[in-house]
Amino acid sequence: MRKSWCRGYCKLLNNSRRRECNMLQLHREKLNRQTQIQFLIDLSDSLTRGFSLSQALQIMHACAEEIAARQMSKVVVHIQEKLAQGRSLSESLLRHFDADLVLVMKSSHDPNQLKRAMLAFGTMHQERKGLTQEGIKKLLYPCILLLASVVAVWFAGAIILPRLEAMASGPVTLHWSSYLKGAAKLVPWLLFVGAGALVGFLVLASSAAIKHGYSLAQSVGEISQSQVYRLFILAGICYSLGMLLGQQVSLNRAVQLLQERATGQAKRHYAHMQEALALGVLSLTDVMRSTLVDRITLMQLQMSAGSVRERSEQLQDVASSLQQRAVRRMQKHLWLLSVICYSLALGLIALLGLGLGQAVSSMVTEWV
Questions:
Q1: What does the DSSP assignment read for 225-243?
Q2: Backbone torsions φ then ψ of 95, nearest 5 degrees
Q3: CA–CA distance, 365 with 162 (Å, rounded to integer)
Q4: Residue of higher predicted confidence among 151 and 366
Q5: Contact 210/20 with Cβ under 8 angstroms?
Q6: What is d(CA 233, CA 319) in angstroms, rounded to the nearest whole number?
Q7: Is residue 78 a contact partner of residue 69, using CB atoms and an 8 Å limit?
Q8: What is the average per-residue pLDDT within 207-217?
């Protein structure tokens, strides 16, 4: 009995490890997001100019060879091989492209419409990339200043003050100098605990990313449950739904297609939408009502329900509004983090100045 249980457990563990390795390998084979979007924009552009799919791929392969883009050349060859085996274009893209882009290719039949969708995806990606770069720039200097202040406090309390005490007749017992020495003793422990917590969080996020097929950023967002992340997820949901509805796909079919390739909170939201549609709910506001959707978004959906505009346009407007709200909230969080970092750094610099100043002043007074 025990041997049977151990054998079953080992088999389950091996299957789990094999699945995680497969997910990691699949993630490594994918192109980066910007390259994926640009590839599909170029492909749709060739199709709009009257080339067949085979001719468009031949042109892209020749262009990739011209600039020695080996990865792109391999992707084109892989797509051509899959098409030669009778696979559809969307099936041929699964290995190297994200699920939402594959879904666009699967549901788009008009090259002009496909190109517009890819350009919209590119704009959204550039906005989010710009926000990330802005966040890094805003936090870089305060974080560097804070780290430099911490190192300076440690250096002053652990190295400079003991040498000053050695030069004086006895230990320096002034309160600011004592605070500085106490802070210097805490610095290694704080750095050790902080580094350990960061490494542990990244390991947890990486493990979840491999297990569920997330990107690392998505895994961090799923774990942190950040409101900004939720707004970005909801913006992507509204945009994808609006895009599919604009291509004459029914709401039921659109939700089904999106759920097949969704992960995390988005997948749970699509499951909720499917349940609501199965119960015969017709109002888009009621169909969208879930724990992911906030009050403001529900108000926007409800207010636009009586509009003569198409559902697809309404959803894309809501997606744009959600993106702007996420950006504003992100900027507010970045500002708050910058203020905290600057405040801590200035406090440490003040402690450094007062501690060393009192020690030097005491020594000068003693010598005089």
A1: T-HHHHHHHHHHHHHHHHH
A2: -70, -35
A3: 18
A4: 151
A5: yes
A6: 10
A7: no
A8: 52
Which of the four pLDDT bands, split at 50, 70 and 90, describes residue 19?
very low
H helical segments located in the chain: 2-29, 33-48, 53-66, 70-84, 89-93, 99-107, 111-155, 161-167, 175-212, 216-224, 227-246, 251-261, 264-278, 284-288, 295-303, 311-367
- Spatial CB neighbours of 134, under 8 Å, sequence gap ≥ 6: 331, 334
Task: Answer yes or no: are the C-beta atoms of 15 and 211 closer than 8 Å.
Answer: no
Cβ count near 232 (within 10 Å): 23
Does residue 215 register a pLDDT over 60?
no
pLDDT bucket at 346, cuts 50 / 70 / 90: very high
Residue bearing the bigger pLDDT, 151 or 313: 151
Residue 242 near residue 311 (C-beta atoms within 8 A): yes
How far apart CA 367 and CA 361 sit, in angstroms, is 10
> What b/e sequence results for 269-304 when a residue is b if at least 16 CB atoms lie within 10 Å of its CB, and e otherwise?
bbebbbebbeeeeeebbebbbbebbeeebeebbeeb
Closest CA to 47 of 120, 103, 110, 102: 110
Tally of CB atoms within 10 A around 46: 20
Helix (H, G, I), strand (E, B) or coil at 1: coil
Amino acid at 274: Q
**Would you state the structure tokens that stand for residue 159, as one six-digit string?**
């190295």
The closest of 336, 345, 337, 340 to 147, measured between CA atoms, is 345
Phi-psi region of 98 (alpha: psi -120 to 50; beta: other; left: phi over 0): beta
Nearest one of 28, 37, 36 to 215, comparing CA atoms: 28
Taking the CA of residue 367 as centre, how many other CA atoms within 13 Å lie in the half-sphere pointing to its CB?
9
Single-letter amino acid code for the residue at 193: V
Non-local (6+) Cβ contacts of 206 within 8 A are 216, 219
Q: What is the pLDDT of residue 368?
A: 59
What confidence category does residue 5 fall into, taking pLDDT thresholds of 50, 70 and 90?
very low
Q: Of 7, 18, 15, 64, whose CA–CA distance to 39 is shortest? A: 64
How far from the centroid of its chain's Cα atoms is residue 276's Cα?
A: 29
Q: Which of 116, 119, 113, 123 is nearest to 247 (CA)?
A: 113
Q: How many Å from the N-terminal Cα to the C-terminal Cα in the chain?
A: 86
